[in-house]
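I am still getting used to backbone structure tokens and would like to learn alongside you. Would you supply a protein for us yourself, any chain you care to pick? Start from the sequence, derive the backbone structure tokens from it, and show both lines together. Go ahead whenever you are ready, and we will take it from there.
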Amino acid sequence: MINKVDVAIVGAGTAGLAALRDVRQKTDDFVLINKPPYGTTCARVGCMPSKTLIAAANAFHERTLLDTFGIRGAEHLEADIPAVLARVRLLRDDFVAGVMKSTDDLGERNIAGHARLDGANRVVVDGHVIEARQIILAPGSSPVVPKPWRSFSDRILTTDTLFEEQDLPSRIGVIGLGAIGVEMAQALARLGIEVHGFDGADQMAGISDEKIAETLRISLSREFAVHLGVEVDLAEAEGGIEIRWGEDKVVVDKVLVAVGRRQNVQDLGLETLNVPLDDKGMPEVDMQTMRIGNTSVLLAGDANGIRPLLHEGSDEGHIAGLNATSDSPVRLKRRTPMSITFCAPEVASVGKRSSDLDLDGCVVGEVDFGSQGRARVMQKNEGLLRIYASRDDGRLLGAEMAAPAAEHLAHLLVLAIDQNLTVHELLRIPFYHPTLEEGLRSALREIARELPPFSISDLSGCGSLEVEALE
């Protein structure tokens, strides 16, 4: 086994592979160390299999709308759950295979095993010591399951195990209604499963804007039982697992635990770096270099807990790879924050959230998609979008939404915020009719009415016709 290298990369997830790509451009003197399985969280147990399940669930759910369009016979459709899950695994395996091609040619530089730091320049892999000038840590994260619940064995599911199920029972509890919990709860409900969702917070999917949160709660409550602001306990029950909260209880067959993911740093040896660690055992990481203090160790991806999203993990791996192979620090500006939850209506936040802002210094524009023309035509007419702009100069600051096509609206808004555009500047671009994006224009117009006048020659002043079919 290799004993000494220029760069050691720990973890073959998204961040680790991004680091590998950049390191390989500068040197062949490296190793990639990964505790199996390979394939990245996103491709194997996260983004891709979950979206495959959601796509099947949404396709089946469309039958509930067909009668409205004058299409009959939808009552004869049924969901073959084993076939749905088989397709999820088929596509998942294809995605994983594509990921693994990126490490096929590494030979002895690809080491399968558990890595642990022994100081800032040594990694111990299952007893074997590797010395490295620079070390990039990207070990990822794992789902959290409270210890008392582990006794329920395979009746407790996580997203690491859900997609391996050959079939699903008729009753499932979902504990944790963050992004992944909301996505899976709705998908399971749309496949015909009785779902009960729980969260200790009063809002779901990471939303901070109270009006958006309430819009989402009302919408999702039509599809499955939503219990917010509650703490739950699990107990054995005849025929299943009893979920208790307050004076209430319900019996389900299995429980999907989606209360979060824990950074894989518990046995990583961070304490050997002689840097301060917080109460969770985490060191401070420079977001622009990914370096831990003044050490020769960089920490990237989900494992640092900064922004646990794929595009952010890829960026962090790239930043770490550059800094591990450069003689001087490479400091890169981070992207405008954006997150998307793929439920219906979709949830998204861009730039600063409501909780990040002093709303007294902002102008807020909103649009209710309940009466928006294109949304009504598509039978997707539910949801709310709220945009926050500076009261001083009308510059866009952020947005939160639970709306149809939020994934596309979010990309438009993140571009505008990244380019430091004002509301008037964004209103100058064309909005084609009829599109869902016209809802964005309605919210912008509401803000513009509260701002100082614009130039008479500026097309941003073209106002609303106040006619639903023409907006």
In short: Residues 81-100 form the longest helix (20 residues).
